[in-house]
Amino acid sequence: MLNDDVHYYTGNTHHSGGIVSTTIIATRGCPFSCAFCDKAIYGRKWRCRSVENICEEIFLANKQAHKEGRHIGWWRFIDDNMLANKVWFNNLCKGLSK
Questions:
Q1: 25-43 pLDDT tens trace
Q2: Which residue from 30, 51, 76, 82 lies 20 to 30 Å from 41 (Cα-Cα)?
Q3: Closest to 60 in 3D by CA, of 98, 8, 14, 19
Q4: 13 or 17, greater pLDDT
Q5: Could you give the 3-state DSSP secondary structure of residue 70?
Q6: How far is CA 95 from CA 59, 65, 85, in A?
């Protein structure tokens, strides 16, 4: 369960084209050493949050925004590489579609 700090999302939203958005980090790191990439922000070891934890965070932030009369139109995932584990990513997509 997330703590009560979820209300900070509504203070950290961005407006782009009239749509309110905010950021989320689901994974950290990238195991690859691509020539075009300067470096991974969070290091080379890939780690992920549970799908349930991510979905809960989004649900609670949306609930708080609704209480404040706002709607988060889209979420920006700012991960180094969300696709390092395809099984995890597919499970995330399924979890977010519910």
A1: 999 988 888 878 766 667 7
A2: 51
A3: 8
A4: 17
A5: coil
A6: 11, 21, 15
Q: How far is CA 71 from CA 3, 32, 48, in A?
A: 21, 36, 26
**19-24 and 74-77 beta bridge pairing:** parallel
The answer to whether the predicted template modeling score (pTM) of the entire model surpasses 0.85 is no
Sheet containing strand 19-24, edge to edge, reads 14-16, 19-24, 74-77
> How far is 23 from 1, CA to CA, in rounded Å?
19
CB 73 within 8 A of CB 17: no
Residue 54 to residue 76: CA distance in whole angstroms: 13
Q: What sign for the dihedral angle of Cα 56, 61, 65, 71?
A: negative
